[in-house]
Amino acid sequence: MHNDVTATGHAARIATVDALLPAPLPFEVGGDSVLLSAEVGDTTAAGLTTCTGLGPDSPRSMWRALVEHRLEVQLAGPDPAAGLDALLTRWDEHLRSLARVGDTECAAVLSRPSRDTAGATELLRHGFAPVGVLAVRPAQRMAAGPDATPGVCIRHATPDDLSTAVALQLELQRYDAQFGRITLRSGVEELITKELLHHLERPEPQVWIAELYGQPLGMVVLQMPDETGWIRHRVSASRVGYLSSLAVSEAARSSGVGTALAAHAHQVFDEAGADVVLLHHAVANPRSTPFWYAQGYRPLWTGWQRRPAVRSR
Questions:
Q1: Cα gap 182→172, rounded to integer Å
Q2: How many Å apart are CA 161 and CA 166, to the nearest integer?
Q3: 231 phi and psi angles, rounded to 5 deg
Q4: pTM for the full model?
Q5: Measuring CA to CA, how many Å separate 45 from each of 60, 112, 167, 250?
Q6: Interval 205-229 mean pLDDT
Q7: Domain 138-301 in this protein, CATH class
Q8: Angle of CA points 160, 230, 288, to nearest 5°
Q9: DSSP notation for 248-270
C-alpha cells in the first residue's frame, strides 16, 4: 500500500464532504513521527502519529494533557469506517509500547472533519469521545452592522482592565473544565494573567470589554488574520480570523451581552477582510454549542480524545 495512493483517494473523498475543508496532502514522515497503515479489502488507511509534551507551567497546558499522542488520518476506498477501525487497532498497539496504562496526563487525540461521519461508531468503540469542535463562520460582509443592545456598551480593554479580564477568563475556564477540553492547573491564574497582560499591552489590543449599565461583565479576545498562521491550514480560506474566547459573567447571562460581543467581534473581522472566523468550543457545553451556532457558526473539525491514552484491558 502506498501513502500517495491513499492520500489521493482520501482527497477525492473529502472534496465531496465539505467545501471549507483544505485539500489534504500526502503524509511526510520526519522527526519522531511514525506512519501506520492498514488495509481492509479495497479500503486503505494511513495514519501519521506524533507525540508532544509540555510542562505544567506552559500556557498551552490548560488546553490539553501534558503528553499528547496525535493521529492524523487518511482513508480511501469503499468502506472508510472499516479502514479507520483497523487503523485505530494498529494505533492502540503502537501506544501500548509508549504510554503507561492509566496515566491521566497522557491523551490520545485525533481530529476528523465534522461532516465526515464515517467511523464515528468505531471511534466510540475504541474508547474515544468527541470533546471539542473547531467551528467556522463565513464572512457576512453584506449584512448591516450589529443592532444596539439596551444597556450594553462595548469598548477596547486597557491595562487597567486586567483584574476584570482575569476574573472573567477564570470564571470561563472553571466552567469549561467540566467538559474535557480544559485542565485547570495549580498556576492557572498566573498563566491567564500573563497571557492577558501580553494582549493588553499591545498598541491596539484586540480585547474588548462589554459593560452592562456601567458594570464590566463580558469580554471577547480576537486574533486578526495576520496572527492566525498557526490555524489557517485547517480551513480553505485566504484570510482567517480566530475568536480566542468570549466570557460573560454569570450575573449577566441571558442579558444580551454575549450576543452583543459576538456581533461586535464579527464586525471587527469583517472590517479586517476576514473570509472566515474560526473558534473552538467544547462539544458538551450546553451554553456555548447552541449560542455559537445561533451566531452563524457550524462544525468544521471535531476533536476526539481518549484520556488516559492507554487503559487497562
A1: 10
A2: 9
A3: -130, -5
A4: 0.93
A5: 31, 14, 46, 46
A6: 94
A7: alpha beta
A8: 65
A9: E-GGGTTTTHHHHHHHHHHHHHH
User: Which grid cell is 171?
Assistant: 470564571
pLDDT recorded at residue 58: 86
Q: How confident is the model at residue 1 (pLDDT cuts 50, 70, 90)?
A: very low
Report the distance separating Cα 231 and Cα 242, nearest Å: 8
* Contact partners, residue 69, CB within 8 Å, separation at least 6: 49, 50, 51, 95, 98, 99, 106, 107, 108, 109, 309
Of 118, 69, 109, 90, the C-alpha closest to 1 is 90
Hey, how many other C-beta atoms are within 10 angstroms of the C-beta on 10? 23
Write down the domain spans for the chain: 1-127, 138-301
Query: Which one-letter amino acid corresponds to residue 229?
Result: G
Report d(CA 301, CA 44) in Å as an integer.
Answer: 22
Q: Would you give the DSSP letter of residue 203? A: S
Backbone Cα Rg of the chain: 21
Question: The C-alpha cell of 195 is what?
Answer: 497571557
